[in-house]
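From the pipeline queue, job 12 of 40. The input is one protein chain; the requested action is below.

Action: predict structure.
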Amino acid sequence: MLAFVQGKIFEAFYIQPTGALLYCIMVIAAFFALFTAVFGVHFGFIKRFFAKVKIRYIILALLLVIIAGWAVTLARALAARSH
């Protein structure tokens, strides 16, 4: 999180890919929330997106990304430990 907040986006992806991806998603969500709060704009494409894509598929994709991110981190730690 510290690398992401300091603006070192690529380093954040290297350290923990899933965390950096979730931070990017949260930054986008915060932008839309701020834009809606300040200007009162309603984004219809978000509602249409969630109407077409089932929530369970989004959760499944998120779980797969989290598992893959931890697998990369674990593999990197095991490789560093063996050297």
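Job complete. Helices lie at 2-5, 9-15, 17-39, 44-52, 55-82.
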